[in-house]
Amino acid sequence: MAKLLELDDDDYFVEHFGDKPLTDVRCSYYPVCPRPELVFGLKPHCDATVVTVLLVDDRVGGLQVLKDGVWWDVPIVPHTLLVIIGDQTEIMSNGIFKSPVHRVLTNTKKERLSVAVDYYVDPEREIEPSAQLVNEKRPALYSKVKVKDYFARSYNAFTEGKMVIDTVKI
């Protein structure tokens, strides 16, 4: 990713993980739902991660991404991993890489399973846009933030139906 951005340091993102990066795993079960129009499997959100690697159910869909105000179904591709760019990458790339808004819908006929592995920068570190991606034509779009503070904001934003990344936009 650093190469795509033409950064001097090819390990720019890796080096930001720090000495104590976090990884967590979420196993999600979405049971059959007789009235899916009334219940989200998981409401719209962005991941507060560097990246999320998702093993999606290869039998039933439900994952959707928001693009230009329209919800798009993520196609089912059996035996694949889906990589979702997280907010931390969006911040460090100064908005060049985007953390997509996504949600999970329930299904009337089939249950759904997924496994997500989240990767985070060390909570004691601060993140901000790379200095190499900030200039007069493209000013910093995000303020510097301590990762653990960003986590705290993310839980509040999620419960309020807001996007936490908006709290660090300049």
UniProtKB/TrEMBL annotation:
Residues 21-121 form the Fe2OG dioxygenase domain. It holds the Pfam family 2OG-FeII_Oxy. InterPro entries: IPNS-like_FE2OG_OXY (IPR044861), IPNS-like_sf (IPR027443), Oxoglu/Fe-dep_dioxygenase_dom (IPR005123), Plant_2OG-oxidoreductases (IPR050295). Keywords: Iron, Metal-binding. The keyword Metal-binding applies. Signal peptide: none annotated. It comes from the Eukaryota. The keyword Metal-binding applies. GO terms for molecular function: metal ion binding. This is Fe2OG dioxygenase domain-containing protein.
